[in-house]
């Protein structure tokens, strides 16, 4: 169950993972993209931190919206509106349910609709989808989902320009999504 409090803790933990792995994420984005994914996500998470810091005693919906706006306004790359849409969809749904897997399902649907990608296209969808569909998120589900993107050929985003040459590399947005879900897993009470 998400609450305003544990969602803020989740974001603190995601922030630290992005900070620690910023260079790695940009390195992953170098052979199959434009080498900026780590920097994009770091800027986005600075945006999230600032928007959350402005709020006084917010409810869950306000927290989720502030996360979305921070990401959409600061990331710059393709990943920003996609992550942002995910949190906006969760914000819309959270008055009805606070269950993690139900919120992640609407988030996934939003990402797919916004970006037009489906499973197997070598994008963040390949991590969001198995995680959203699992009743209990585990490190193995996350790791296997990330690893599965290596042998895929990209059909969406910049990596798709490379055609078959995109095969053999992990998708950077899949790896950053893995940090998001590891952070969630490590946040007590979710
Ligand atoms: P940009 O490619 O604009 O530089 P980023 O490097 O920040 O943006 O993000 C790239 C990541 O965004 C990819 O690794 C992929 O996971 C994700 N992505 C790109 N396009 C799409 C899409 N249409 N649907 C889902 N995810 C996408
Ligand atoms: Mg990029
Ligand atoms: Mg870019």
Automatic annotation (TrEMBL):
Keyword Acyltransferase: no
Record field: catalytic activity: dihydroxyacetone + phosphoenolpyruvate = dihydroxyacetone phosphate + pyruvate
Coiled-coil residues: none
Domain of life assignment: Bacteria
Keywords of this entry: Glycerol metabolism, Kinase, Transferase
Enzyme class of the recorded protein, top EC level: transferase
Residues of the DhaL domain: 5-186
A single GO molecular function term of this UniProt record: phosphoenolpyruvate-glycerone phosphotransferase activity
Listed GO biological process terms: glycerol catabolic process
This enzyme's EC code(s): 2.7.1.121
Pathway terms, separated by semicolons: Polyol metabolism; glycerol degradation
Pfam families: Dak2
PROSITE patterns found in the cross-reference section: DHAL
InterPro entries: DhaK_L_YcgS, DhaL_dom, DhaL_dom_sf, Dihydroxyacetone_Kinase
Any one GO CC term of the record: cytosol
Subunit field text: Homodimer. The dihydroxyacetone kinase complex is composed of a homodimer of DhaM, a homodimer of DhaK and the subunit DhaL.
Role according to the record: ADP-binding subunit of the dihydroxyacetone kinase, which is responsible for the phosphoenolpyruvate (PEP)-dependent phosphorylation of dihydroxyacetone. DhaL-ADP is converted to DhaL-ATP via a phosphoryl group transfer from DhaM and transmits it to dihydroxyacetone binds to DhaK.
Annotated protein name in UniProt: phosphoenolpyruvate--glycerone phosphotransferase
Organism: Liquorilactobacillus sucicola DSM 21376 = JCM 15457
Organism lineage string: Bacteria, Bacillati, Bacillota, Bacilli, Lactobacillales
